[in-house]
Amino acid sequence: MTIETVSSREVYRNRWMTVREDAIRRQDGSSGIYGVVEKPDFALVIPYESGTFYLVEQYRYPVKGRYLEFPQGTWEEKADAAPETVAAGELQEETGLVAGRMTYLGHLFNAPGYSTQGMHVFLAEELSQGAQSLSPEESDLVVSRVTVEDFEALVLQGRIKDASTLSAYSLLRMKKRLP
């Protein structure tokens, strides 16, 4: 099925995203509108060592709650940075960890029904501890280390609700990267 864009207008912009509204024509000839959130791709890192993951927990303002997730982010001020550079940087900034080996697992879309944003997923191994470098938005960030079994239990308990974290974990499992 193809949807044709008839016209497009920007309705909002800040340094993190742009929202546009497109007038569209569907394959059957009917008209409509489509709201699209344009955001740059981000990097998500799965820090794994000896049967455990490192997770970060921070307050997420839009959902008014604290949840566990894999380290992830984008660099608005360096939009042209390579995904592996962003991944290594986010891992170090959020957890203080440096990966001796970083493996690219793939690219997934975050919410393709309304957003252009995707994520590059990396597995970080051979970890060494360094210092965190948190931004003001991350000042309440806490790092936890959990076993794979505990990770799955935390999902079932509702402590891990981040769709990016869950889809990255699924990709890791499907690529058979866990023992």
TrEMBL record:
<dbReference type="GO" id="GO:0005829">
    <property type="term" value="C:cytosol"/>
</dbReference>
<feature type="domain" description="Nudix hydrolase">
    <location>
        <begin position="38"/>
        <end position="168"/>
    </location>
</feature>
<dbReference type="InterPro" id="IPR000086">
    <property type="entry name" value="NUDIX_hydrolase_dom"/>
</dbReference>
<keyword id="KW-0378">Hydrolase</keyword>
<comment type="similarity">
    <text>Belongs to the Nudix hydrolase family. NudK subfamily.</text>
</comment>
<protein>
    <recommendedName>
        <fullName>GDP-mannose pyrophosphatase</fullName>
    </recommendedName>
</protein>
<dbReference type="InterPro" id="IPR015797">
    <property type="entry name" value="NUDIX_hydrolase-like_dom_sf"/>
</dbReference>
<dbReference type="GO" id="GO:0006753">
    <property type="term" value="P:nucleoside phosphate metabolic process"/>
</dbReference>
<dbReference type="Pfam" id="PF00293">
    <property type="entry name" value="NUDIX"/>
</dbReference>
<dbReference type="GO" id="GO:0016787">
    <property type="term" value="F:hydrolase activity"/>
</dbReference>
<dbReference type="GO" id="GO:0019693">
    <property type="term" value="P:ribose phosphate metabolic process"/>
</dbReference>
